[in-house]
Amino acid sequence: MKDQQTVLYDAPGPRARRVTLIVSVIVVLAVVAGAYFLVYRPLDEQGQFSMDLWGPLIDPDNEVFSQVWARLRDGFVATLTAAALAIVSSLIFGTALAVLRIQLKALNKRKFSGLAAPAAIALRTLSWFLSIVSRFFVEIFRGLPVVITIFFVASALPELGVDLGDILWYLVIGLTLYNMVVIGEILRSGMEGLPGGQREAAEAMGLSSFQTTRMILLPQAFRIMLPALISQLVVVLKDTSLGFIISYEEVLRVSGQIIQALPEPNPIQVYAVVGAIYILVNYALSKLAEYVQRRLARGRKTAALPAEQPPAALAAEIEPAAKV
Amino acid sequence: MRITRMTAIAAAAVLTLGVAACGGDDDSGDAGSTDTGSKTFEAGTTMERLNKAQKIVIGTKFDQPGFGLKGLDGKPAGFDVEIGKIVADELGIPEDKIEYIETPSAVREEKIEKGEADIVVATYTINDKRKERIDFAGPYYVAGQNILVKADDTSITGPDSFKAGDKKVCSVQGSTPAANIEQYLANKGSQLVLFDVYTKCIDALNSGQVNAVTTDNVILLGFIARNEGKFKLAGENFTEEPYGIGLKKGDTAFRTFINDTLEKAYSDGRYEGAWKDTAGKFDDQVPTGPAVNRY
Amino acid sequence: MSVLVDHFDVFASGLWLTFQLCLLSAIGALILGTVAAVMRISPIPPLRWVGTAYVTVFRNCPLTIVWFFAAFGLPALGSNADFLRIPGLTSVFSRLGVDIPYFRFAIVALSVYTGAFVCEAIRSGINAVPTGQAEAARAIGLTFTQNLRHVVLPQAWKAAIVPLGSVIIAMIKNSALAGFFGLVGELSNSGVNLTSALGEPIIPVFIGVSIGFLIMTVPLGLLLDHLERRRAVAR
To answer: A127, A275, A312, C104: most buried, per Cβ within 10 A?
Structure first.
């Protein structure tokens, strides 16, 4: 990115630098003026900056300060619990899904010529059927809004007689269904993007197809995909906030309750604080992803491997990973 | 002016907290709960089971000011909660042994059918459709749908004012009041706004995106009380919503017991006390306990 | 399943409204995202800061909170998003012009949120343009804006089209939240209304809602897969 920025324009001369400075000053002034007249003034006129509204959140001497924060803390703990459970189960099931799809693909190529004809046909039909089903599963849950998936899980499972007791589990299942598919696809394209020689070498050593996947392909795919996987963590953390729809008491729902319980309701203030915390945590996570990516790139260079671009097929897979 | 306002708010805060924190203590100080465990019930009844277990699960709303709202201390408070406490008390179960679970409108029947909640007290309107799945004790309160408008608004006088098609109204998604008001609207797309909670409707009314908010009168009275002088009701209630206590279908003995409890509470002042501590802060007119329906 | 037939009009009009919302928001997001991307690579430092701050905030904040500020923050600033009542458009998209502003707020929320991801997709596209291109353009004396307009952006668009498509698919899915922020009659809101107010069975209704979303997302996803494969072959 850095080099791209500099190649777009020449190193500024004295005149260009003067222009840049003037434009910079104008931009700063415009931003400050905009913030003052369009945001600060209207909010101030409505008394949105009064301590009656902010006190419970920022003034430790306020009577309800500790109660408000105790509840917010509970809310964040609930959010993190759901996010952690969802990411772990998405990783497990996503890996399983990726391995399954890779195996099925390999299986589909086999002719089973060593077996009797009916058995071979049966096996081929089965593997063909399974790959259709897994493809269908992927398309459905990748294409459905997470809100709908969560809502559906929470209302349909009890209807079908599956009762999980705690709402937490419905949220975790809903989030897992979506994220396992995304993670599965990230890993699958990571494995498919590896140089073909890896698989061939493993097979030449006499490893079975499953062993090849498990011991050779998967570890490398995980390594390449680590940054994308960390970005997915940000997505899960943000999506946990959808739990409010099925009344899971994560931080946004708790915020709603706090707002109603305060003598002077202050939604703008509470959501601003909660939003800021979200942004901080997620920003730290994405920085971590960038750091890991840099380290991986460096590691590869020192090992004198060709500093390859992520496989082309990946570009699309990383992107969905970077958002809800 | 500024100072008086601040003081008023501080006082209100202390009051709310005081009630939320001590509401329980006051009640457990009553004569009613001192004989915990000394009550005996006929063997095999729900009353006996609950009394023996010394535990009851009550389903209520966690986001309904005045009736069931989770306070800053994390405990639900409100009129529904107080009614639940009275029932628990009659069963010989102390207040700290009550477990509250949240029962939003959509899952109330389900929670009862599965036995996850022993009773549900959650602004639960009695109607025939629901009676197919569960039974109701009570009613213990009769609410009615009404319309909240800004204090200086004279153009809306009742639900019929929406027929002209230029007034916008707000309610809560999937609720009975939303379904009721729909039939008065000329064009849903340009007249109806739905949110997940009523406070958002109040914000929208405040900043002018909608002209009115409609739901049960008690909830609206709560908002009038909290925003002094800003809002008023636009007319008379135009529906009748008898609130009942939901329990498992077919448990007639338990239903009779709760109905008896309610009648007892009407006469010995506990009903009035429960009202005054909670929803009564919005509506100082203490309701007379409605006649229970022993169907 | 009869609910799907009985209430076909509800599903159809819900789908239509969701489609309108997505179309308008996609346009808004593309405009915002491109502007932000240009800002982030511009020679003016404060513009770069603004662009970076915008992307950082909206990529890391849950959409629910962004939407809350669109639906309740804008009114607090005294705006009903009337700037979206664009004369020609209001006659095609009738909801854009009604007094109830939540359709416009939904467009604001989705555009602003998605714009941050569009910006990142375009930036990844710009990164994919070989540096020699920009250098050559500079060598023949093109200025920064000319360089962007005639050399870098046209190529970047091509490289960014697949990531952009994924961003738009995600946006379509995110639009399902609109029903929880005051927009009546959109697809998911219609579903909730059918089940909780009219007491229709949950599973068929949600199958209907799901089909509605899949109609929009799956073909787009398949198209992207196709484009991606063609690109891979072309290399």
So the answer is: C104
